[in-house]
């Protein structure tokens, strides 16, 4: 049914559920699976002085953690017979996910939800909510 599936990987506990859903959808099919993780491209130091080198180190650690998450997810899918691509993006997660999905003509986005509701979701925003509202392809939200 779907030839190109994008799976967004986050550090949340939901990642295993995302991968399980991906395996069920893509197993034994000629489906191209792309694992995507988005990390921030800047860190605000607020009002206190923090050396610029320290902020660079934080961003480097965030990127390293992102790449490790992608590799762990890739290993799990490979053990199920799925050979995914991995993509690391930087920036606003919802924007980057939607841009990548559009640019690569994804047919399905699988994304996790932390389960925010009501005022928390309204105040904090929800990446999964934004993606589901603005995506041009179907979005599967895994709780």
TrEMBL record:
Residues 1-143 form the UspA domain. SUPFAM superfamilies: Adenine nucleotide alpha hydrolases-like. Gene3D superfamilies: HUPs. Pfam families: Usp. InterPro entries: Rossmann-like_a/b/a_fold (IPR014729), Universal_stress_UspA (IPR006015), UspA (IPR006016). Belongs to the universal stress protein A family. This is Universal stress protein. The lineage of its organism: Bacteria, Bacillati, Bacillota, Bacilli, Bacillales.
């Amino acid at each position: 049914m779907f030839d190109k599936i994008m799976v967004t990987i986050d550090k949340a506990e939901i990642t295993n559920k995302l991968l399980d859903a991906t395996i069920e959808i893509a197993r034994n099919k000629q489906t191209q699976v792309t694992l995507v993780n988005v990390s921030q491209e800047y860190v605000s130091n607020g009002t206190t002085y923090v050396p610029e080198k320290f902020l660079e180190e934080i961003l480097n650690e965030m990127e390293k953690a992102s790449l490790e998450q992608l590799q762990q997810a890739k290993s799990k899918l490979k053990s199920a017979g799925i050979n995914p691509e991995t993509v690391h993006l930087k920036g606003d997660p919802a924007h980057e996910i939607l841009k990548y999905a559009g640019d690569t003509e994804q047919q399905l986005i699988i994304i996790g939800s932390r389960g925010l509701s009501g005022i928390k979701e309204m105040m904090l925003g929800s990446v999964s909510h934004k993606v589901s509202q603005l995506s041009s392809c179907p979005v599967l939200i895994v709780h």
